Amino acid sequence: MASRKTIIILLGLLGALSLLSYAIVFFVGTNYPSAEVVQADDVIPAIAPDTMEEPWRNVYAQILKDLSQNPLPSPWYEQSVYRPMYLAFFIHDINGSGTPELFITIGTHYRELMKVFTFSNDAAMPLTIPSGYIFGDQFYLPPDNGLGIISWGFHAIGSFWYAHLVMGEGKLIAEVELAREIGACTDTGMEVTSYLINREEVTEARFDDMFRSIVGDWVVQHEITEENIQNVIFGCI
């Protein structure tokens, strides 16, 4: 009898150990696989796959990251007498090449200073901006290629200057310049308004037609933040 009880006890222990081993394999093996089970395709890449096809994304993101970490002092601000209040950027293919340019705006309480990069030979190359157009209050996307930049008159309410910029060899070129200039009042108290296209005076009707044909949609600028830098890398901007 004693040996029979012993056998029964041993069989029971073996059964319990067997169930315990199955439980360990199920819970541990299912939720926490060994390193040999993990496949390369299961690992989340540090860089989005689209970035490999669009290498400019990482390069532009690095420029934005460097700027966000050390915004001052910087030679970018030497042309402005005002302390920058915010940093922003937008990405736009100005010449329709398929590879966009990076536009950086530096807001002050007066206007925005713009710096532009294009991507060439796996590197970001700065573009020269025409003299007089480093400042811009608003930016527009024309119906065709190019970039519209507008500056509102500081001394005369209602005056503004608009330039349609296109990309040349290593620089931006003002292809069309528009200006509405409000001058001093006449003896009768009426303000004198001049309308110019490429610095030649034209009628108000011709000026308005030209302006409407090239102004395009207003550019949405993005604040330079860690989240938006990641959005550049992963193709969300």
Walk me through this protein's architecture.
This protein has a seven-stranded antiparallel β-sheet, with helices on one face. It folds into two domains: 43 residues; 185 residues, no CATH class. Helix 3 runs antiparallel to helix 5. Helices cover 29% and strands 32% of the residues. It contains five helices and 13 strands. It has 237 residues and is of the alpha+beta class. The longest helix is centred in the N-terminal third of the chain and has 30 residues. The termini are far apart.
Helix segment tally: 5
* DSSP summary, beta strand count: 13
User: Could you estimate the helical fraction of the residues in percent?
Assistant: 25-40%
How would you classify the helix and strand content by structural class?
Answer: alpha+beta
Secondary-structure element series: HHHEEEEEEEEEEEHEEH
What Rg do the Cα atoms give? Answer: 32 Å
Whole-number count of domains: 2
On the 0 to 100 scale, the average pLDDT is 74
With strands numbered from the N-terminus, the spatial order across the biggest sheet is 11-10-9-8-7-6-12
Report the biggest beta sheet as strand number plus sense, adding barrel if it closes: 7 strands, antiparallel
Which runs of at least 5 residues are low in confidence (pLDDT < 50)?
Answer: 19-50
Shape: elongated
The N- to C-terminal Cα distance equals 81 Å
Percent strand: 25-35%
Characteristic terms for this protein:
237 residues; 2 domains; six-stranded antiparallel β-sheet
Walk me through the topology.
Layout: H1 2-31, H2 49-53, H3 56-69, E1 86-92, E2 101-107, E3 112-120, E4 123-127, E5 135-136, E6 138-141, E7 147-152, E8 160-167, E9 172-185, E10 191-197, E11 200-201, H4 204-214, E12 217-218, E13 222-223, H5 226-233
Antiparallel strand pairs: 1-2, 1-13, 2-3, 3-4, 3-5, 6-7, 6-12, 7-8, 8-9, 9-10, 10-11
